[in-house]
Amino acid sequence: MAEYQLYCFAQSGNAYRAALMLNLVGADWEPIWIDFFGAGVQRTPEYRTKVNEMGEVPVLVHGGKKLSQSAVILTYLARRFGKFVPQGEDEEFEALRWIIFDNQKVNGFLGPYRFLRILARPPGDPAVLAFLKGRIDNNLAIVDKRLSTRPYLVGDRPTIADISLVAYLYYPPDEFGFDIAAQHKSIGAWLERMKALPGWKHPYDLMPGYPLKA
């Protein structure tokens, strides 16, 4: 058995953050597939009792620890491996600021938008999708402006803030109906820098469950 196990599935950007971090730090890890769209294991009393009371993924298992919420997992792994760690109090707060912004305003909108557009049955209401798209465009513009002045969110090297923000940004443009990297040039260049890091893999290559069974 690998030292780390990650409850995940390929379509989850939140799980991708954790899986990518494990790969980038060179951890000995293995995925545990959650059939989110089929059996719905995450909703069972057993899962909520033994794995995560919140009924969510990702969950990182390390020895006797079970950690949920991607920001917690990223912080835990950064400290254990000494990689992608914000340096000093100012960087710690700046990284936290962008992680919160990402979770609430960037991937916090991109995730539901993508789900309602291609995964929900029936698909989401067009008016709801239009509302979310407007928020997404505004918030991606904020990130793009930030990345136009520096190579990474916090400074001249990647931190857990960058790994958090890539959560949904590598999924295919046709799943969103628009091309994030093409429309936001600074984000596109940053995604290429992140992609060049040793250990980077696409979410569909890193986690099980793709393609979905009909």
Give a verbal description of the structure.
The protein has 214 residues and is α+β, with helices and mostly antiparallel strands. It folds into two domains: 87 residues, Glutaredoxin (3-Layer(aba) Sandwich), CATH 3.40.30; 108 residues, Up-down Bundle (Glutathione S-transferase Yfyf (Class Pi), Chain A, domain 2), CATH 1.20.1050. The protein is built from ten helices and four strands, in the order βαβαββαααααααα. The chain has a four-stranded mixed sheet with strand order 2-1-3-4, with helices on one face. Strand 1, helix 1 and strand 2 form a beta-alpha-beta unit. Helix 1 runs parallel beside helix 3. The longest helix is centred in the middle third of the chain and has 32 residues. The protein is globular. The chain starts with a strand and ends in an 8-residue tail after the last helix.
Q: pLDDT below 50 for ≥5 consecutive residues: which ranges?
A: none
What structural class do you assign from the helix and strand content? alpha+beta
Tell me the strand percentage band. Answer: 5-15%
Strand order of the main beta sheet, please? 2-1-3-4
Report how far apart the termini are: 31 Å
Q: What portion of residues is helical?
A: 40-55%
- The total beta strand count reads 4
Globular, elongated, flat, extended or rod-shaped: what is the shape?
A: globular
Mean pLDDT: 97
Computed Rg: 17 Å
Query: How many helical elements?
Result: 10
